[in-house]
Amino acid sequence: MAKELIVVKGRVIEQNRSFSPEVGEDIGYELGAKMIQRWHKENPDDVLASFTGRNIIESILAQPGCTGIRMFNAINDLGIKQLVLVGVDKDGNNILNYTTIGDNGELINNKGIVADRSGLCPPSCGRDTQLDWFA
Questions:
Q1: Which of 116, 100, 16 has the alpha carbon at shortest distance from 62?
Q2: Long-range CB pairs of 127-133, under 8 A, 24+ apart, other chains included
Q3: Could you say which DSSP state residue 56 is in?
Q4: Distance between CA atoms of 76 and 82, rounded to whole angstroms?
Q5: Partners of 86 in the beta sheet?
Q6: pLDDT at 96
Q7: pTM for the structure as a whole
């Protein structure tokens, strides 16, 4: 997978250049906890996490040509941080429209799924969400 160097907040980082289904990896509990601790320490009054159900995620991924999901940071009408999820194709384009063929062979124009309304933590965190990440 091709890599590229980019600048984020004045720092040079390396990232995958591809929009293939293979982008992303298991970083493990220790690194994940360290990253979450760092973010929470700098943003103690902000939303800790968002929960998005399997059904909408599978619906996004089921769109023709979808190779993954882009998660946009967003602010809802109440001023609360949210994530907006959009399908992405192999070229890195957001899937906002796509065409399918109907039962009679007619072309059907569909709107791509743009998802939100995730559950917020807090208050809906579950038992194991905080673990020892904030110690």
A1: 100
A2: 129/48, 129/49, 130/48, 131/33, 132/33, 133/33, 133/36, 133/37, 133/40
A3: H
A4: 6
A5: 70, 114
A6: 95
A7: 0.79
Note down pLDDT in tens along the chain; length 135 residues.
677 776 877 888 777 677 878 777 788 888 888 988 888 889 888 888 888 999 999 999 999 999 999 999 999 888 888 899 999 999 999 999 999 999 999 999 999 999 988 888 877 777 765 555 555
Please say which residue of 26, 46, 66 terminates a domain. Answer: 46
d(CA 97, CA 63): 10
**30 and 53 within one domain:** no
User: How far is the C-alpha of 7 from the C-alpha of 12, rounded, in Å?
Assistant: 4
Range of the structural domain that residue 116 is part of: 48-128
Clarify whether residues 65 and 40 are in a common domain.
no
